[in-house]
Amino acid sequence: MPKNIVQLNNQYIQDENQRRRYLEEERRKKNRFMGWVLILVILLFILPTYNLVQTYQTLLERRQQLTQLQEKYDQLSKAKNDEKDLAEKLKNDDYAAKYARAKYFYSKEGEYIYNIPDLLPQ
């Protein structure tokens, strides 16, 4: 016993179908709008994130550069102090004569100079 199902096609059914299509179209428009808003929000977060990462990399480079400059400063300070100490020592005539004789091989008349490595006075 097959049953035949017949759909009524009266004004109420047509109005309900039209209302359902209208609601479905409104939902699609709302979903499309929310999709565009989501894309816009993502784009708005990408640019600051990119800038933040770039700034962080620059900060790391500057920290590394600061460390190198501090090391160079320490080396130059040590060299300056060594030169200052040498200048103070060279004010002593005996030390200056000994230094000149050791470094530049100056000698008094009748003296022989023998070069011994690492014998230069400090």
Automatic annotation (TrEMBL):
PANTHER family: CELL DIVISION PROTEIN DIVIC (PTHR40027:SF1)
Keywords: Coiled coil, Membrane, Transmembrane, Transmembrane helix
InterPro entries associated with the record: DivIC (IPR039076), FtsL/DivIC (IPR007060)
Name of this protein: Septum formation initiation protein
Coiled coil: 59-93
Annotated TM spans: 33-53
